[in-house]
Amino acid sequence: MIVFFIGLIFITVIFGFFFIFYNTLIFLKNRVFQALSNINVLLKQRNDEIPNLVEIVKHYAKFEKELLENVTKIRSGYSENLDVEGKATYSSSVSNQLKSIFALAEKYPDLKADKQFLRLQERITSLENQIADRRESYNWCVTNFNTRCEQFPFVIIAGMFNMNRYPLFQNKK
C-alpha cells in the first residue's frame, strides 16, 4: 500500500513538472507572437503613411520619379503573411528608400520647408524608432523561447510537441 502511494505521488510530481514546463513554453511562444504582432501594427502604420509622403514629394521633386516609383513598388510588397525574414527584408528596404526621400529634401528647399512634409517626416521617423524598439522586444522574446527549448528538461517537451526555434528579426542591408 505504501509503495502504491509513493508511486502515485511520484507520478503526480512528474505530471506536475510536465505541465509547468509545457505551460512555460506556451507562454513564451505566445509572447513571440505578441511581439511580432506589435511589429506588424507598426509596419502597417508606416506603410499607410508612405503614399502621403510620396504625394507631397511629387509636387516638389518632379525629376525624382524613379525614387518615388521604387518607394511605391517596395510598399506594395508588404503583407502580414510574410515570414519574419521577409518582413525584415521589407522593413530594411522601406527604411533605405525613406532615408533617400528624406535626403532628397536637402536638394529641394521648398520641400524641406513644407509643414506637411516635416510632419510626415517626424511621424515616419517616430514609427521607425518604434519598429526598432519592437524588433528588440521581439528578438528578446525569441531568444528567451529558443533558449528554453534547448535547456533540459524543456528540450524534451519542446521535442514532444514539435516546438521549433523562431528566427530573429534582423535588418537586412
TrEMBL record:
Topology within the bilayer: Single-pass membrane protein
One Pfam entry name: LemA
TM segment ranges: 6-28
Subcellular location: Membrane
Keyword check for Transmembrane: yes
Keyword tags: Membrane, Transmembrane, Transmembrane helix
Any one GO CC term of the record: membrane
Gene3D superfamilies according to UniProt: LemA-like domain
Domain of life: Bacteria
Major location (coarse): membrane
Family statement: Belongs to the LemA family.
Name of the protein in question: LemA family protein
